[in-house]
Amino acid sequence: MSRPRRVVAGRDTILVTGAASTAGSRLVPRLLALRHPVRAAGRRASELPGTRPVLFDWHDPATHDAALPRATRLYLVPPTAAPNPAAVMLPFLTRTRTAGVRRAVLLSSSALPACGPGVGQVHAALQDLFDE
Protein backbone atom coordinates (compact mmCIF):
# COMPACT_ATOMS: atom_id res chain seq x y z
CA MET A 1 0.00 0.00 0.00
CA SER A 2 1.46 3.35 -0.98
CA ARG A 3 1.61 6.28 1.37
CA PRO A 4 -0.24 9.44 0.37
CA ARG A 5 2.04 12.17 -0.88
CA ARG A 6 2.65 15.04 1.45
CA VAL A 7 0.80 18.23 0.49
CA VAL A 8 3.13 20.98 -0.65
CA ALA A 9 2.98 24.13 1.48
CA GLY A 10 2.21 27.24 -0.52
CA ARG A 11 0.18 25.45 -3.19
CA ASP A 12 -3.28 26.77 -3.88
CA THR A 13 -5.99 25.29 -1.69
CA ILE A 14 -8.85 23.96 -3.78
CA LEU A 15 -12.37 23.95 -2.37
CA VAL A 16 -14.32 21.09 -3.90
CA THR A 17 -18.07 21.48 -3.44
CA GLY A 18 -19.92 18.19 -3.57
CA ALA A 19 -16.70 16.39 -2.64
CA ALA A 20 -18.58 13.16 -1.86
CA SER A 21 -20.51 13.25 -5.17
CA THR A 22 -19.54 10.99 -8.05
CA ALA A 23 -17.48 13.69 -9.77
CA GLY A 24 -16.07 15.17 -6.57
CA SER A 25 -15.03 11.84 -5.11
CA ARG A 26 -13.06 11.07 -8.28
CA LEU A 27 -11.45 14.50 -8.45
CA VAL A 28 -10.29 14.76 -4.84
CA PRO A 29 -7.80 11.84 -4.95
CA ARG A 30 -6.33 13.20 -8.19
CA LEU A 31 -5.81 16.64 -6.70
CA LEU A 32 -4.19 15.08 -3.65
CA ALA A 33 -1.92 12.98 -5.88
CA LEU A 34 -0.76 16.27 -7.41
CA ARG A 35 -0.08 17.46 -3.85
CA HIS A 36 -2.74 20.19 -3.75
CA PRO A 37 -4.34 21.02 -0.41
CA VAL A 38 -8.06 20.19 -0.68
CA ARG A 39 -11.04 21.34 1.36
CA ALA A 40 -13.75 18.71 0.88
CA ALA A 41 -17.07 20.53 1.11
CA GLY A 42 -20.43 18.86 1.40
CA ARG A 43 -23.68 18.65 3.33
CA ARG A 44 -22.21 15.97 5.59
CA ALA A 45 -18.59 17.20 5.70
CA SER A 46 -17.35 13.71 4.87
CA GLU A 47 -13.91 12.70 6.02
CA LEU A 48 -12.01 12.00 2.82
CA PRO A 49 -8.42 10.87 3.44
CA GLY A 50 -5.94 13.71 3.06
CA THR A 51 -8.51 16.52 3.00
CA ARG A 52 -9.89 19.11 5.36
CA PRO A 53 -13.63 18.43 5.51
CA VAL A 54 -16.00 21.37 5.77
CA LEU A 55 -19.77 21.53 6.09
CA PHE A 56 -21.28 23.21 3.02
CA ASP A 57 -24.82 23.41 1.70
CA TRP A 58 -25.71 25.55 -1.31
CA HIS A 59 -29.11 26.27 0.25
CA ASP A 60 -27.69 27.32 3.65
CA PRO A 61 -25.66 30.55 3.36
CA ALA A 62 -24.62 30.15 7.00
CA THR A 63 -22.26 27.37 5.83
CA HIS A 64 -20.61 29.38 3.07
CA ASP A 65 -18.07 31.49 4.96
CA ALA A 66 -16.61 28.50 6.81
CA ALA A 67 -15.76 26.87 3.47
CA LEU A 68 -13.67 29.77 2.20
CA PRO A 69 -10.59 30.24 4.43
CA ARG A 70 -7.38 29.66 2.43
CA ALA A 71 -9.27 28.61 -0.72
CA THR A 72 -7.98 30.26 -3.88
CA ARG A 73 -9.58 27.86 -6.38
CA LEU A 74 -12.98 26.19 -6.62
CA TYR A 75 -14.43 23.10 -8.20
CA LEU A 76 -18.17 23.61 -8.34
CA VAL A 77 -20.69 20.80 -8.32
CA PRO A 78 -24.04 22.58 -8.78
CA PRO A 79 -26.85 21.94 -6.32
CA THR A 80 -29.02 19.04 -7.35
CA ALA A 81 -32.72 19.56 -7.92
CA ALA A 82 -32.44 23.36 -7.74
CA PRO A 83 -34.95 24.84 -10.19
CA ASN A 84 -32.70 27.90 -10.64
CA PRO A 85 -29.08 27.05 -9.75
CA ALA A 86 -27.91 30.60 -10.52
CA ALA A 87 -30.08 32.03 -7.74
CA VAL A 88 -28.32 29.76 -5.25
CA MET A 89 -24.80 29.81 -6.68
CA LEU A 90 -24.17 33.40 -7.79
CA PRO A 91 -24.38 35.02 -4.33
CA PHE A 92 -21.82 32.48 -3.06
CA LEU A 93 -19.55 33.02 -6.08
CA THR A 94 -19.61 36.78 -5.58
CA ARG A 95 -18.63 36.19 -1.95
CA THR A 96 -15.78 33.88 -2.97
CA ARG A 97 -14.32 36.50 -5.28
CA THR A 98 -14.29 39.00 -2.44
CA ALA A 99 -12.63 36.35 -0.21
CA GLY A 100 -9.72 35.94 -2.63
CA VAL A 101 -10.69 33.03 -4.85
CA ARG A 102 -9.03 33.49 -8.24
CA ARG A 103 -10.29 30.56 -10.29
CA ALA A 104 -13.42 28.43 -10.54
CA VAL A 105 -14.21 25.32 -12.55
CA LEU A 106 -17.86 24.40 -13.01
CA LEU A 107 -19.13 20.86 -13.54
CA SER A 108 -21.49 21.33 -16.45
CA SER A 109 -22.26 20.08 -19.93
CA SER A 110 -21.39 21.38 -23.37
CA ALA A 111 -25.08 20.90 -24.16
CA LEU A 112 -25.89 23.82 -21.84
CA PRO A 113 -24.99 27.10 -23.52
CA ALA A 114 -23.76 30.10 -21.55
CA CYS A 115 -26.74 32.17 -20.44
CA GLY A 116 -28.94 29.13 -21.14
CA PRO A 117 -31.09 27.17 -18.72
CA GLY A 118 -29.83 25.44 -15.58
CA VAL A 119 -26.25 26.32 -14.80
CA GLY A 120 -25.88 28.23 -18.07
CA GLN A 121 -26.24 31.55 -16.25
CA VAL A 122 -23.56 30.49 -13.76
CA HIS A 123 -21.26 29.51 -16.62
CA ALA A 124 -21.71 32.94 -18.20
CA ALA A 125 -21.01 34.76 -14.92
CA LEU A 126 -17.75 32.92 -14.14
CA GLN A 127 -15.81 34.73 -16.82
CA ASP A 128 -16.60 38.11 -15.25
CA LEU A 129 -16.02 36.96 -11.67
CA PHE A 130 -12.62 35.29 -11.90
CA ASP A 131 -9.24 36.16 -13.40
CA GLU A 132 -8.20 32.68 -14.54
Question: Can you describe what's shown?
Answer:
The protein is of the alpha/beta class and 132 residues long. It is 30% helix and 18% strand. The chain contains 4 helices and 5 strands. Strands 3-2-1-4-5 form a 5-stranded parallel β-sheet, sandwiched between helices. 31% of the residues are buried.
Chart the SSEs and their pairings.
Elements: E1 13-17, H1 22-33, E2 38-42, E3 52-55, H2 64-67, E4 71-76, H3 85-98, E5 103-106, H4 120-129
Parallel strand pairs: 1-2, 1-4, 2-3, 4-5
Provide the β-strand percentage band.
Answer: 15-25%
State the separation between the terminal residues, measured CA to CA.
37 Å
**Helicity, as a percent range:** 25-40%
Largest sheet: 5 strands, parallel
Major sheet: order of its strands?
3-2-1-4-5
- Which series of helices and strands comes N to C? EHEEHEHEH
What structural class results from the helix and strand content? alpha/beta
Radius of gyration over alpha carbons? 14 Å
Keywords for this entry:
132 residues; alpha/beta; globular
Outline of the structure:
By secondary structure, the chain is α/β, with parallel strands linked by helices. 30% of the residues lie in helices and 18% in strands.
